[in-house]
Design goal:
single chain, 612 residues, alpha/beta, TIM Barrel, Jelly Rolls, 2 domains, eight-stranded parallel beta barrel, seven-stranded antiparallel β-sheet, 26 strands
Length: 612
């Protein structure tokens, strides 16, 4: 029996070694990634929220814990540094396990893009010094991926100093990477340590230098890329270096002009979500048939391989799993690498959903937890629940693993013409109207006091100054406002229509609003203090028509609610606005997110009543 067990153990060990040796080193060869002899099409997913948190991915919505910095700071302030580290290890040990790599492989994938935070390896208390266990988790990820025949692209998702204002770089509204040279110096040092560590690891496909570094002009980004590239090449010329453009690959320039070798360029594209057009099959077809050839032409002109580092169709209305297959097929046709966002998110089981970000989610309800008050054992159990039974997105798995080719996509119709002037400006019934800092006067088609179409211009309600069309009433005290939105024309993915409670009619006013975007997503936005940048939270929302939204003002507290059709109200976000006066402006708004045209929003069932 002992000999038999010894035989089994040896067999397993040799099997693991064999799998590890099956991955060959990858190189950029013209516009193709190769293993030296043959093209290699990297097809995979992103392991988001593992080594850098995006709290929405674990279904954590807390106005005061919006990023990894605040997440860890909350734990540290409550329990101390050592206990925080222990808890974060429990989280990482459960967010992704060996089994997850097996699931990824079962989708016919051979690559993971691995986003990580600089503080996984170093921190601000000891800059440019590796932590004693710096590579513990990256080693585990690379080793486990390799055992499953999966390459790893290491992506610095959050650099020291934060390369944008977005929470997905680790610290929201920080963005000091571009203003203080020490952060670029630290990032170059960090990449050099990583490049040394994995110099001889064929399972590492390459190094993705910075994720979505939108905090500075592209010219400055290219200079930063060059500094990081040189730091890596001083110790490692084996691995591909991936560099991300914003609007196009041409922004990065010709690699030959900078003496960049063994590099690949990357973009992130989310048609119908964060990129042009509504979430429809027609818009997806337009992207695949029009935008992809343009990217391919740029890659050929620059003679670089291309990575579609993040993408997702998301919505079932846009084609869902079948359209995801079409994306992967199209990328493979061009010999591109592609990693969808994302592998895993947490959701509410049995909730009616409009789409899927993920390949896997939780099968059972998550513990209801408040990280600011929960005990250690409660937090441990919360983290451990992330590795409980999964619900697999079977439609996507079936679509990506079936061998039968899909029928061709029909050519999409041309997009509609823009509305450049308000077609109606009817007299309002017991309402007033204002264009807040807009370039084109808005208007409205009035059917009754409770039903109207609003035509609005305006760049956005997002930073410190607002632009929008506002239909309002001035009220005193506590009120509830609700409305049904049946339509919002697509002028931009961030066009908005909704309901608002506002302190005044100036463009920097304190306010709270609940908005619907053209894809039906919901957005809760607040400005707590006059003139400051807003805070925002999102939700996948509902399909048009019959999207119901509601705001309730109770003193300095604003509550938001939403539902679809005749379904019961679902509570969304709550905010405290200490500077909101008793006299308030309450009403409806619409903006196009494009100052050259108007968006149309159709409202009905508009109700306002005072709370007793």
């Amino acid at each position: 029996m002992k000999n038999y067990l010894r035989y089994i153990i040896i067999t397993i060990l040799f099997s693991s070694i064999s799998l590890a040796q099956a991955l060959s080193p990858l190189k950029a060869n013209g516009t193709i990634i190769t293993d030296g002899n043959n093209p290699v099409i990297l097809k995979g997913t992103n392991l988001g929220n593992w080594f850098i948190m995006e709290t929405w991915m674990m279904h954590l919505y807390d106005e005061k814990i919006r990023d990894q910095y605040m997440f860890e700071l909350t734990l540290e302030n409550r329990f101390g540094t050592n206990e925080k580290k222990r808890l974060m290890d429990i989280f990482r040990a459960n967010w992704i396990t060996d089994h997850d790599f097996e699931i990824i492989k079962s989708f016919n994938m051979n690559c993971v893009r691995l986003p990580f935070y600089y503080q996984l390896l170093e921190d601000d208390t000891a800059p440019m010094q590796l932590k004693p266990d710096a590579f513990k988790w990256l080693d585990y990820a690379i080793d486990t991926a390799e055992k499953n025949g999966i390459y790893t692209i290491l992506c610095l998702h959050g650099a020291a100093g934060a390369q944008s204002n977005m929470g997905h770089c680790g610290r929201e509204d920080y963005n000091k990477f571009w203003s203080d040279p020490i952060y670029l110096k630290r990032t170059c040092w960090l990449w050099q340590q990583i490049a040394k560590r994995y110099k001889n690891r064929a399972a590492v496909a390459g190094f993705d230098l910075l994720n979505e570094p939108w905090g500075a002009p592209m010219q400055k980004q290219v200079l930063a890329y060059d500094a990081m590239y040189k730091a890596i090449r001083a110790v490692n010329d084996e691995h591909i270096v991936f560099m991300q453009g914003h609007e196009s690959l041409k922004e990065l320039g010709n690699p030959k002009d900078k003496n960049w070798q063994n590099v690949a360029y990357s973009l992130h594209r989310y048609p119908g979500i964060f990129d042009g057009g509504p979430p429809t099959r027609e818009n997806q077809a337009r992207f695949l048939k029009t935008s992809l050839p343009e990217i391919n032409n740029e890659a050929k002109q620059l003679n670089v391989p291309f990575l579609m580092g993040e993408f997702n169709v998301l919505y079932t209305s846009a084609g869902g799993a079948e359209m995801m297959r079409r994306h992967f097929d199209a990328y493979e046709k061009y010999n591109w690498a592609a990693t969808m966002w994302a592998y895993k998110i947490m959701t509410i089981p049995d909730e009616q959903r409009r789409g899927f970000w993920e390949m896997a989610t939780n099968k059972h309800p998550l513990p209801d937890i408040d990280l600011r008050t929960a005990g250690i054992e409660e937090i441990e159990n919360y983290f451990k629940s992330f590795s409980s039974d999964y619900a697999i997105y079977d439609d996507l798995k079936k679509s990506l693993t079936q061998k039968q080719p899909l029928p061709p996509l029909a050519d999409p119709p041309p997009p509609p013409k823009p509305i450049t002037s308000a077609p109606f400006n009817d007299n309002l019934i017991n309402w007033s109207a204002a264009d807040i800092s807009t370039s084109i006067p808005g208007g409205q088609k009035v059917y009754s006091e409770t039903k109207m179409d609003i035509f609005g211009c305006g760049a956005d309600i997002y930073l410190s100054n607002d632009q929008f069309r506002f239909i309002w009433k001035k009220l005193t005290g506590d009120y509830e406002i609700s409305a049904t939105i049946d339509e919002l024309t697509f002028t931009h993915m961030f066009a908005k229509a909704g309901i608002m409670i506002r302190a005044d009619l100036k463009d920097d006013s304190v306010f709270s609003l609940l908005a619907v975007r053209p894809a039906g997503e919901l957005e809760f936005i607040c400005r707590h203090n006059k003139g400051e940048k807003v805070k925002t939270d999102g939700h996948l929302g509902h399909d048009f028509p019959d999207i119901n939204i509601k705001l309730v003002r109770k003193g300095q507290t604003i509550e938001s609610y939403h539902c679809k059709g005749n379904e019961p109200w679902q509570k969304f976000m709550t905010a405290e606005l200490p500077n909101l006066p008793q006299d308030i402006y309450v009403g409806l708004f619409c903006l196009s997110h494009d100052n050259s045209q108007l968006a149309k929003a159709a409202f009905e069932n508009i109700k306002i009543f005072q709370l007793r």
